[in-house]
Amino acid sequence: MKKLEEVKLSPLLDKIRDLWLFQMYTCQRISDVKSYSPEQIQDSAIGPIWEFTAQKTGKLTTVPLYGKAARAYEILQKYDFKLPIVVEQYLNREIKKVAKIAGLTRKKHLTRHKGNKRVNTAKEVHELISSHSARRTGITRLLGEGIPLNIVQMISQHSDIKTLMKYSEPEKETLLSAFG
Fold first, then answer.
1. Is the pLDDT of residue 25 over 60?
2. Integer Cα distance of 170 and 1 in angstroms
3. How far is 170 from 176, CA to CA, in rounded Å?
4. The model's pTM
């Protein structure tokens, strides 16, 4: 995250990165980020919140924009509470460029199944980044920081806890450092 946040970019790529980070810090689907409007921001007793009806589930969703998501609120402030509008395919293509510029080039080993065969491949992280990886990264980050599963489920609007549990699989580095 730090590399993505600190890399110097052109104004256009800066907007792409900020949209991705906003999505990551709020753990939301790109469809909900795209339907964001400034009227959805409210004040609570603790801090600002983003309250909206999720596109996929139709459920009222409340996302705190303070504490672990304070950076999302800063991004909104940067754009005067009007997020840049970008087509999802364009975002997915350009965020790969941003990630490469940021130096996210370490290899990630993937195992996929084709029929009854396991296929192992390796790709650089920047090749894998997408709008969905923002949501996945945000959820994994919250779970890794000890936010209870039911709270993450409320924010992410996963109706099935089994689906949400897929996001809690730690990477090898996280696993090893947990014992350090």
1. yes
2. 16
3. 10
4. 0.88
